[in-house]
Amino acid sequence: MKKILFVPLDERPCNRLYPEYMIKTRLDLELVQPPLEMLGHKKEKANISQIRQFVLENSQACDAMVLSLEMLFYGGLLPSRLHHEDTIYQQECLNYLRQIRQMNPEKPIYAFQLIMRTPRYSSNDEEPEYYGEYGHEIFRRAYLRDKQERDGLTEAEKIALEALNSNIPEAYIVDYETRRRYNLELNLAVLDLVKEGVIDFLAIPQDDSCEYGYTSMDQKQVSQKLTQLRLQRRVMMYPGADEAGSSLIARAVSELDGKRTKVYPYYASTLGPTLIPLYEDRIMQESLKSHLQVCRCEWVSSPEQAEFILAINCPGKVMQEASEQKQKDISYASFRNLNAFLDAMERYMQMGKKVVLADCAFANGGDIELIEMLDESRLLDHLYSYKGWNTHCNTLGTSIAQMVILNSDAVNTKAVIHNLMYHLIEDGFYQAIVRKETTDALRPPLNYFDLANQQKEVVRVEEKRLRELVHTTFLYSFKDHTIERLHVYHPWNRMFEIGMELWLS
């Protein structure tokens, strides 16, 4: 049994449970991670000292380590956006990583550290309190300042920037920029650790990235330093966030197994590879290259050469939110051919190829029409994996990670089916349908970001609706499996994400 020590980004299921469910599809792998009670809750930071001790106590019994530096440095993703640490603490963080290396001189250490995001909307749900009032303005001000320096501004943009400089309270700008500067300094310092050999491989995902602004400015500095240090083969920077832990676990598995997974990707539309998805800063195909590299996959030129087929469902021309798919842009039909996409999938299955579906046609949820067509074609339960959650790169990264983990003779078939159904229900049904239906039905004081003390009542409605969708959608699929238990919970007491207990017989 090969063991991988894993410190997740935060306590949410996408960061803690998704990797665990993937690892369970193998009979010869085990994921060792800190218990849930150590991991904090939303803006409440984790018990950093306990987690650090857990790593030290368990590292020598494991074969590799995958470490979230946000968790080890700040106590989680949201605390990394809220802290008031000083520069003395930076050195403590760096020395702790050196201590892990000293205790494990030959053991591979994979780490990931985000470039702090700058949401383009006003909400304090995951940001400082003032971001609820001035979030969009803070984003827009940085966007225009960066654009001014790089490409220049129109007269209208110059006037807008002057207004933003006057309207945003200076204290908020100072607080926000001070924290960003601190986080950037730590980003840059970690590159030195890669150079020292403390970290074997570093991923720097970009959360909610954009062409201009704070994130882009920080990215430029990180890129310049990693180039100066000649670390391009050991450090990768690309769009993503919540999938990063899964991707690095897959990389660890690939190296422990001593092989690269041969992948043949194909898209549902001609323009798909050239589209820039919502919340990202580059075309789909460039992100695909990065995620394949992070997971140590080999992109082969024909399906015959491949061990896995990566079927990428993409928009035709314009990406929408999954909740809007009842009013789809016409290009989903005119610039995309789902029948041809399914025909190819069926042909690859008949060739004996393992097909993994990355459902990236919409942001924040799956493509219901595609799921129904797969069921109607009797292909749905022949997939080796389905993912369709949050951003394009969240889905893409976890789909590729699952391929790598499944590239083995020690596959747990029952766990594969469980994982497949889990994501069809959560990514497809909840994110694309039930989340909006339930949100629209909420009445004050309940809202999208706060279910108050009514989570049990909300969950009861959601579970009933999810079961209905399973019954009405899976007409020909999963007939050998019965859902014994389907229990939903909201880890941050909001609508955006759920956790789910799914028991099958």
Keywords:
505 residues, alpha/beta, Rossmann fold, six-stranded parallel beta sheet, five-stranded parallel beta sheet, 15 strands, 46% helix
Description of the structure:
With 505 residues, the chain is of the alpha/beta class. It has two domains: 2-117 and 184-257, 3-Layer(aba) Sandwich (Rossmann fold); 261-504, no CATH class. Helix content is 46%, strand content 14%. The protein contains 16 helices and 15 strands. It has helices spanning 13-23, 48-58, 69-74, 87-103, 131-150, 155-167, 170-196, 214-228, 244-257, 284-294, 331-334, 338-350, 368-376, 392-406, 413-441, 455-473; strands spanning 2-7, 29-32, 64-68, 109-112, 201-206, 235-239, 261-267, 297-299, 308-313, 320-321, 354-359, 362-363, 385-387, 483-489, 499-504. The strands form four sheets. Strands 2-1-3-4-5-6 form a six-stranded parallel sheet, with helices on both faces. Strands 8-7-9-11-13 form a five-stranded parallel sheet, with helices on both faces. It is globular. The mean pLDDT is 97.
Number of helical segments with 4 or more residues: 16
Percent range for β-strand residues: 5-15%
Largest sheet: 6 strands, parallel
Strand order of the largest sheet: 2-1-3-4-5-6
How far do the termini sit from each other? 26 Å
Structural class: alpha/beta
Task: Please provide the count of β strands.
Answer: 15
Uncertain runs are: none
- Quick check: average pLDDT? 97
Structural domain tally: 2
Helix content: 40-55%
Radius of gyration: 22 Å
- The backbone outline, from C-alpha atoms, is globular
